[in-house]
């Protein structure tokens, strides 16, 4: 009985470092998506550029404005929107999603950082807009610390630090992928809290407006009744004469 010749199977090491997040085969993807792909990266790139330019002009004219436009909150909000629009526009025009669509291959860490930094910009701007809304409406939700600029500034700073560390470390070594989970979990939790607080404060404003309307209706009814009584008394006096 003859033995089959033994074969030695050798496993070669991967020549490229795996990415922390999966990516499509861009050669196939661009052919499959066609014009829709071009409209996506170019269209959104233009929209984010418009946002950045608009925020820049608002900041440039901040000193000339009166009222809320000059307040630090307005400056901070527009600075965040400027950063959001500029970084996402650069991300889309430079090397959208690492597709090398424009013939340029940007460093992996730079692409991830440009993409990821927009999320804390988005949540932070909404957070400050909500704070400004609460100040204007003179509403307090929960503890005063939740409406403290320093406390919210600390949360915003922590979010930025988490994103920067997570995006750069996972770009260097895919073994740090749990950092992305931490980063995205923070974004989801922070976004959920902001959404809930927006809804809660909005309902409080609606209820307060309803109470004010009822009070005004009561005042108007009382004034109408007093005016009607006054007229009846005057008519009674005239009839007696």
Automatic annotation (TrEMBL):
Domain named Proline-rich transmembrane protein 3/4: which ranges? 17-226
Q: Is Manganese among the key words of this record?
A: no
| UniProt keyword annotation of NAD present | no
The UniProt entry, under Pfam families, shows: PRRT3
| Superkingdom | Eukaryota
Membrane topology type, per the record? Answer: Multi-pass membrane protein
Q: Where does the protein principally reside? A: membrane
Q: Where are the transmembrane segments?
A: 41-60, 72-94, 114-137, 149-166, 186-207
Amino acid composition bias (Polar residues), ranges on this chain: 1-18
Ordered alphabetically, the record's keywords are: Membrane, Phosphoprotein, Signal, Transmembrane, Transmembrane helix
Q: Where in the cell is it found?
A: Membrane
Q: Where is this region: Disordered?
A: 1-22
What is this protein called in UniProt? Proline-rich transmembrane protein 3/4 domain-containing protein
Source organism (scientific name)? Desmophyllum pertusum
Organism lineage:
Eukaryota, Metazoa, Cnidaria, Anthozoa, Hexacorallia
């Amino acid at each position: 009985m003859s033995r089959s010749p033994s074969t030695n199977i050798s496993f070669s090491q991967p020549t490229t470092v795996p990415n922390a997040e999966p990516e499509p085969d861009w050669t196939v993807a661009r052919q499959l998506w066609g014009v829709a792909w071009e409209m996506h990266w170019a269209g959104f790139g233009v929209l984010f550029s418009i946002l950045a330019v608009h925020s820049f002009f608002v900041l440039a004219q901040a000193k000339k404005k009166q009222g809320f436009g000059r307040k630090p909150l307005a400056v901070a909000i527009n600075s965040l929107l400027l950063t959001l629009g500029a970084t996402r526009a650069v991300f889309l025009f430079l090397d959208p999603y690492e597709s090398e669509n424009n013939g340029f291959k940007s460093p992996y860490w730079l692409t991830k950082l440009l993409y990821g930094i927009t999320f804390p910009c988005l949540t932070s701007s909404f957070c400050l807009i909500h704070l400004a809304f609460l100040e204007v409406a003179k509403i307090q939700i929960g503890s005063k610390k939740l409406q403290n600029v320093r406390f919210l500034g600390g949360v915003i700073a922590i979010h930025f630090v988490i994103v920067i560390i997570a995006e750069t470390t996972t770009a260097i070594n895919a073994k740090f992928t749990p950092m992305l989970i931490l980063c995205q979990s923070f974004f989801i939790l922070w976004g959920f809290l902001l959404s809930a607080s927006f809804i809660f404060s909005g309902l409080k404003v609606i209820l307060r407006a309803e109470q004010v309307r009822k009070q005004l209706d009561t005042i108007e009814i009382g004034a109408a009744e007093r005016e009607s009584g006054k007229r009846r008394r005057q008519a009674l006096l005239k009839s007696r004469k």
